[in-house]
Amino acid sequence: MTEFETVTSRIVEGVEISDCVSNQQLVNTITTTITEMITTIALIAVDSNDAASAELITILSPNSVIIDSTTVSNTIACTNPTTWSFSHRDANGDMSSDGLDDLVHIQMTSGDGLNWANLKVSIVVDGGVSSLCVEGGDAATSDCTWDKDEDKSWDTSEEITISEGDTDLCDGTEPCSVVVTLTKVGVGEEDDKVIATVSATAENN
Length: 205
What we know:
The chain has strands at residues 5-17, 24-46, 52-60, 66-77, 85-90, 102-110, 114-115, 119-125, 130-135, 144-147, 153-154, 159-164, 176-184, 193-202. The chain is mainly β.
């Protein structure tokens, strides 16, 4: 065994990624180094006429394999997209032709919390043009608005209320179809992404 030397025969790297929890994933990078002991023997043959030939043979010690693994853990943002779901209900208010009426409530029923700053809301009423709603905006200068609670994100079971601005979108004489498009605004090089289209109904109560 004094003629054997230890060499690295293989390095294997694997990655384990956990499930997405609160938009975070644990990534374990596992590096496995396999070392073995080998030696090389020269076999030389000489015939009766002094003609020689040689061959080198590499020998592996069968009991000398050493496997050493190290794990490096990091936490990253989820690479898998979050799936959200939403429900809706009528705002249950009196409606008129003057504008400023509450239309519908939209509730998040499942999905990770969505930062309010990353939410864009637009609506189409009775197949008309699309209106971009302003969060907490001046109703007198907006086609529509939406209101939120005071925390930092839209979480499961919380609602937003979508209302008319200074434009009358539904006067309540007939139920109005309100198609709400919810868009997650991209951050950095990420593109905006529509996360849900909710078809609701607003009517006079």
